[in-house]
């Protein structure tokens, strides 16, 4: 918890919150994943791994999980935390380069992208690049699941995905909106 607050104070535009997400929000995020059929899951901005823990607890043993974290301290924490897990790749980098990372690790496609990125505080160009690449990498059958504290970026996300289901999770500080996005 102290590490999270410290990283927020150092990097408020990329960390995006003063507290980690609640377990309730994490559950709401993974409710949108069909773990029986998911072969490849990518998580943008896993931070301290609150959503990652739920993904790992529910995934099939063969499911490959890639974590893309731009914060070096969080990346170190994640590498230590998941060092004994099979089929997990942890990348210290930007979600803007997801296509490069999946090619490097031999991931042929992505079934789900789970995102903890604070689109409200990211530069517009960065948000657009991430969403363009995410849509392309997911194709017509994948799903993008993200949360935001407001619905300000819903219109932006709607530009890239045909269907968006929005649910509210009040058991989080602050309460959050979960967007489950697809092109079907």
UniProtKB/TrEMBL annotation:
One of the GO BP terms on file: methylation
Full protein name: SAM-dependent methyltransferase
Pfam families with a match to the protein in the record: RrnaAD
Gene3D superfamilies (alphabetical): Vaccinia Virus protein VP39 (3.40.50.150)
Record key words, sorted: Methyltransferase, RNA-binding, S-adenosyl-L-methionine, Transferase
Molecular function, one GO term: RNA binding
Keyword Disulfide bond: no
